Amino acid sequence: MHFLIIGGTGRNGSLALQEALARGHTVTALVRNTASTKLPTHSNLTLVQGTPTSQSDISKALATPRTPQVIITALAQVRVTESPFAALHPDTTPDFMAVSMRALLTAITQANLPFNPKIIVNSAQGAGTSWRSMNLPGKVLFSHGSMGTGLKDHNEVDRLVRESGLSFVLARPVMLAEGEARLVKVWPDDGKGCAWMPKITRKSVGKWLVDAAESIEWDGQSPVLSN
């Protein structure tokens, strides 16, 4: 299977990329600078220089070296520090993820591909109907500041993907943590049954994104994920 990964240099995207390669898949990664990227060299990895908001860059990635069966987008808004509470970086915009998704969907539509790829999005708990599954402190955090802006962006991505007519999976992991990959609990779209203070490791998320690519079990769904 051939993957296109957008956001493959990020903390979650890089783990999904490594997992896909470890399973013997081929991967194209759209990166801002092929000369300075920290992604490891691999015979099954092709790097295409460009930005996720550029339709022309995405169009090139869709054809290099061939059409992907699956596109994983693991983008996040860039902040001045790695803290989720930090302000947005001056070079990013409040609708960065939505703008990038519009560019991707337009590129797919105009590329005259031999088949339509499945889109897998690394979203977040709180998006869409999963809002009701968040605890009160989480709802307070995601209602204000940069985290609220990020959730609004995720919701717009959710809408765009659902209206695209493409096969999709919108993964909604709970609070992210470091650590090894562990068993992933997959909850309904609304997160019903999820624990009050759930967590999931980034490696678990990266592995599950590839699981979703290889399976049709979650197609058309937006499950909440936890350990």
Q: N- to C-terminal separation? A: 27 Å
Order of helices and strands: EHEEHEHEHHEEEEHE
Overall average pLDDT: 94
Q: How many whole angstroms does the radius of gyration measure?
A: 16 Å
CATH class designation: Alpha Beta
Quaternary assembly = single chain
Number of helices: 6
- Reported by name, the CATH topology is Rossmann fold
Query: Superfamily at the CATH H level?
Result: NAD(P)-binding Rossmann-like Domain
How many domains make up the coordinates?
1
Described by strand count, sense and barrel closure, the largest sheet is: 8 strands, mixed
Shape: globular
Low-confidence stretches: none
Strand order of the largest sheet: 3-2-1-4-5-6-10-8
Sheet-strand content, in percent, reads 15-25%
Structural class: alpha/beta
Q: Which architecture per CATH?
A: 3-Layer(aba) Sandwich
Helix content: 25-40%
**How many beta-strand segments?**
10
Task: Describe the 3D structure.
This protein is 32% helix and 19% strand. The strands form 2 sheets. The chain has an 8-stranded mixed sheet, sandwiched between helices. The protein has a two-stranded parallel sheet with strand order 7-9. It is globular, with a radius of gyration of 16 Å. It has one domain: NAD(P)-binding Rossmann-like Domain (Rossmann fold, 3-Layer(aba) Sandwich), CATH 3.40.50.720. It has 6 helices and 10 strands, in the order E-H-E-E-H-E-H-E-H-H-E-E-E-E-H-E. The mean pLDDT is 94. Helix 1 packs across helix 6. With 227 residues, the chain is α/β, with parallel strands linked by helices. Belongs to the avfA family. It comes from Fusarium heterosporum. InterPro entries: NAD(P)-bd_dom (IPR016040), NAD(P)-bd_dom_sf (IPR036291), Polyketide_Oxido-like (IPR051606).
